[in-house]
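Q: Could you fold this chain for me?
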Amino acid sequence: MLRFLSERRIWVVAAFVVLALAVGFWIWGMPRVSARAADAIAARLGVDVQIEETRLSFGGVELRGIELSGRHGGFVARIEAVEARMNPLSALLHGVSSVRSVSARRVEVTADLSHPGFGESIAQLRTNGPRPKAATASSKRVGGKGRTYDLDELTLRVIDGDGHLVSIGDASLHKDGDRMLGRFGDALLGERSGDHASVGPSALELTRSEGAWKIGDLEIQGASVRSLRNGDADQKALATRLRDAVSELRDAPSAAETANEPPDSIGPPAGARLFARLTPDVRVAVSGVQIESRTPAGHVERIRDFRLALDGADDGWYRVRVGGQTSDRGALKVDLGVMPNEARAEGSIELRQISLAVIAPFAPEIPFYDEDVGTLSAELELGASSRERISIEGRLRLRKLALDSERIAAEPVDNINVDFRGKGNWYPGERLLQVERGEVRMGKVSLLIDGELERTPDHYRVDLSARLPPTRCNDVIGAIPEDVLRSLTRFEWSGTWGALAHLSLDSRALDATELSIRVRDLCQFEKTPRWVRIERFRGPFRHRAIEPDDTVFEMRTGPGAPNWVALSDTSPFMAAAAISHEDGAFYEHGGFAPWAIRDALVRNLREGRYVVGASTITMQLAKNLYLQREKTIARKVQEVILTWWLENALNKDEILELYLNVIEYGPAVYGLRHASAYYFGRHPIELSPAESAFLACMLPSPKRYHVSYERGALTRSMRSKVRRLLEHMAKRERIGPDALEYGLQELEDFRFRRKGDPLPDARALPPLGAPEFPDPEALDPFENLFLEP
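A: Sure. Below is the predicted structure, expressed as structure tokens.
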């Protein structure tokens, strides 16, 4: 008995010793376990990690007080507790792969897109983050059906430079194998005090397929949208903020994504990318949505009971149905079948008097103005009769559209009424739109269109014809909004005007571009605004020019004024140089040169930006006499009408004479008489071939090219420009061989006269050696050769 008690005492003592060692090891090791766990997570995700407490048990491990933050700042996630369930023996044998389930509760995530380090933090997270892996033998043995994940009480907040952008509360996620279920409480985009979108309770089901998570089921019951535009003009529209947020996330690719993606790769269309995120049998049901738009003037437009249903089928087709009623008896109804993989669709779209105030929030790029009075109506029928072709027929009506953009006009342009109708075919495989019959109608003017448009990832092609049947001249101009014409509305005409235009363009062969414009102009000017009448230019008048820095230059010119020079008192070399440089077919066209428009179009497309225009001498004169320096569509329209007027009111010699007397030749140097004296100390009749060519070469940018005069000698580039112009003049027979030789010799010792220098000696100039008027076949302007990129 004593021996037994002795052995028993030994075991008790041993047990106490082991327990003491275990407790000591626990006390000593737990902080180190937390530290090692934090290091492992940080290395795995590429984030900074802090863990307050770690608890081990025979059933797994629990981490408490976890904080994950971006290494460059910008986001932080706080988790109250994470529990990983595993079998201790399996953990000893298989490590992390033995984890059966992971659950987290009370997760708060905050992302600040305006933080300067946000992009780098997200890029590092995506680079280090876990990648989908094929199931290993050990994972199959241990995991069975696979690891499960649970996330409860999730709160997400996203902030950008304008404030709160996204808030989601009371969300939960459950993942089991390749299936994930999510439930969300209230979600808010923006802030309730301003423009916002709020979504009620919703449910989401995702399925992993082909390495990506796809939506299998989405249900939203009840939501409200208020404008999606910010009333504060200093803040971005909410739709723009959301788009920028998505772009911010996309612009932070992982290293692997960057390496695998070609620099110039072009992905599938946005619609195809959207459907690629859906399972073939997806079901989306959105109902009870109220959309409200408030205009700056305080007008409120609503869409009541907006609903959306999307159902997939195994054959690749998706059915999309949309409906809703607006507050002004408008309605929208969409019933489409869509096959995104083949870019096919069939069904109908109907919009009836939808207020532009409802559309504006979803199209922040369009510069709407006073949208509370404009409406949009549309009827469109799509038919997918075959895999290769989709037939399209319908009409669209815009009423009282108003736009406000500095590119369109200096002031808002309102009361734009346009009707579109047409019939055509879409060939998805070729990305080709064929317009069988199209009509654009504004006021009493109908423009008829037919042809083809093609756009693929590697090229684009246009082959279009447009015809304006003979139409009353007053109706043609009357179709242009009054805010574009401004005081030109006082013009009145009699007669008719018709036109036929054709454009054939292929980006693979831009040099083969064809542009033809044929006009039948039977208009007569009956009434003109007082300020454009030609009588004011028959005698001395005050010419006013506004410089780029908004300073105003004024001079007195016109017949009888000291600064005026008649064309007959001008060197013939000057007229030849100006025409050769600015408008090679000046005496052949009626103010507009289609071949110049074609050449400018080709060059601008090739350069990918605006580098050259197609202004004729008459168009430049219209700008100098009547218009401001603003670069807007409205000013270009006014320029066209005023050019038309000048070509009708003056003959070509009068236009050229007026042009040479009012254009700028240098800083505060306006008019040919002033320029001749300023640069050479001579009268305009005394200008030589090279001097005339130099003044013509100043015209594209007189202040920029004034540097030659400042240096006292031609720069290398200016000398080359003058030489090429002289050679071109001779090639076009606008000067003879003797004049060319004389001009080229001048370039060897080209001199300017400075203020205070003695007047130059008289000299004998060679004859022009060419017809007074240019060769009728010289229809290509020389302007392009002298405009540097």
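A (continued): Residues 528-786 form a domain with the Penicillin binding protein transpeptidase fold fold (CATH 1.10.3810.10).
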